[in-house]
Amino acid sequence: MSTRGSLLPLVAGLLALALATTLGVVSVTSLTIARHRLVALAEATALHAADSFDPADVRREGNEADVRLTDEGVRRSARAFLSAHPTLPVEEVSLIQADTPDGRRARVVVGGVWTTPVWSEFVPLKIPLRAESLSRSVIR
Predict the structure, then answer these.
(1) % helix, strand, coil for the chain, step of 5
(2) Long-range contacts, 18-24 (Cβ 8 Å, 24+)
(3) Are 125 and 115 in contact (CB under 8 A)?
(4) Could you tell me the pTM of the whole model?
(5) What residue ranges of the chain have pLDDT lower than 70?
(6) Rg (alpha carbons) of the chain, rounded to whole number
(7) What is the reported pLDDT for 79?
(8) Residue 111 in contact with residue 94, Cβ under 8 Å?
């Protein structure tokens, strides 16, 4: 019995496994980076929205000033910020929610769709992402 040529299927299998692993690592890395960037965008948007108060409504309480936010002001500020910063490696970035839970903090929820950079049978082509952030303005 000859063993000639029996190494070729093993090498082909190893190459296929290495290719599948590489595609998976590239896709997961891209997804992680896109998720972190979406979180950073949500945090920046919430920070901008937390500064959407009317300076005439600032009240002084001890050493700090108390600011009052409104849902409409937070929403308007968040929309303006997102329209000014549209570049992100996530498709279809949208403002899901922007409000103030207590009148002092701004809560922003943004969503997007991540698309795989390399087509693969092992990774979905599109994954919806969502990031939430809460921010508060403090004036001293």
Answers:
(1) 45, 25, 30
(2) 20/120, 20/122, 23/118, 23/120, 23/122, 23/123, 24/120, 24/122, 24/123
(3) yes
(4) 0.82
(5) 1-3, 5, 86-90, 120, 122, 140
(6) 24
(7) 93
(8) yes
